[in-house]
Amino acid sequence: MKTLPLTKFADQTGIPFESKVDRTQGSSSKLSIRFLGTAGFIVESADRTIVLDPYVSRPGLWDHLVGPLRPNRDLILNIIPRCDDVLIGHSHSDHLLDAPTLAIEYGARIIGTETTSAIAKAAARHAGNVEIETLVTQGGEDIACGTAIVRGVPSFHAPIAPHLSIGKYLGDGVPFPGTILEEEGETLEWPLRASQFKEGGVLDWLISISGLRILHIDSAKFDRIELERLDVEKVDVLCLCAIGWQKGNPDYVPYLLERFQPRYIVPCHWDNFFDPYRSATREARVWGISRLDSFIEAIQDHATKSELILLQLDGVIKL
């Protein structure tokens, strides 16, 4: 599959990218879910705003190759006007880069692994030793976020090149493997290069909010044992990572759809994250390596009782 603008992809597949989807069925909305591109979402109820894996700064390819990565503060605050909690699935730059800005500017709490916490605190020191709140979890515990409850589910990162290892840059096919302990993080100097954003372990997220359940699959590989431990039969929304989906679990799509029987399936992490978030001259593009066309076909083959919703960047579902 080639990298294609959204309109051309939609023309070829017959599946439109939605800007607004209303599934409130005539009642008042309990919840909105807004897609930020990559694995990013804003989940907002009447009294809580939870942001997952925000990455709207989107430095270009050249920045990733030669320089430190810098968050775009003004753009972040414009696109994400409020935030109480930030859930980080793993610590690569396309999941974590923008999170410290939300903690520094809004006082949002960052929840994730020890590596996530160490990197976020490096950004806070650079901002003038700002005190930020981080909560380190290895998963498997319920965490209160106002009236919402979130639980990290230990998981894995899908390989981009299975069985290939190149030192600190690629371990068993996963970019930038390794962890950063809190004390090691004290020597980090923000801003960081892409290779300094170590993976740090992966967490999927189960969010219970406003009487609804959302399962966010952070990377396209899961830990079956951990998912089976969840005392949940069904979820309302399954946010499903596309990139790498054919290289992780062989039953990635059918297992997750059968196990959780979602009402709605929202593919994510299919876009080319080297493109700017908003551009007057360039439309957002489906990244060819995500194999989104085949991914959608696989979902349609197994989603007998689920609705597939393909959101454009900034697209919103109201439930």
Report what the structure shows:
This protein is an alpha/beta fold and 319 residues long. The chain has a single domain (4-318), classed as Metallo-beta-lactamase, Chain A. Helix content is 24%, strand content 26%. It contains 10 helices and 19 strands. It has helices spanning 6-13, 61-66, 73-79, 93-96, 99-106, 114-126, 182-185, 224-229, 252-260, 292-302; strands spanning 4-5, 18-22, 32-37, 40-44, 49-52, 85-87, 109-112, 134-136, 142-145, 148-155, 170-171, 174-175, 202-209, 212-217, 237-241, 264-268, 285-286, 307-308, 311-318. The strands form 4 sheets. The chain has an 8-stranded mixed beta sheet, covered by helices on one side. Strand 14, helix 8 and strand 15 form a beta-alpha-beta unit. Helix 5 (99-106) crosses helix 6 (114-126) and helix 9 packs across helix 10. It is globular and about 50 Å long. The protein starts with a strand and ends with a strand. The mean pLDDT is 94.
Global morphology = globular
Beta-strand residue percentage: 25-35%
Characterize the main sheet.
8 strands, mixed
Helical residues, percent: 10-25%
Oligomer: single chain
Q: Which fold name corresponds to the CATH topology?
A: Metallo-beta-lactamase, Chain A
Output the radius of gyration.
Answer: 18 Å
- Determine the N-to-C terminus distance: 33 Å
Find the structural class using helix and strand composition: alpha/beta
Number of helices: 10
Q: Going across the major beta sheet, what is the strand order?
A: 2-19-3-4-5-6-7-8
Q: What is the highest CATH level, the class?
A: Alpha Beta
Catalogue the unreliable spans.
none
Number of domains: 1
CATH superfamily: Ribonuclease Z/Hydroxyacylglutathione hydrolase-like
Q: How many strands in all?
A: 19
CATH structural architecture: 4-Layer Sandwich
Order of helices and strands: EHEEEEHHEHHEHEEEEEHEEHEHEEHEE
Average pLDDT? 94
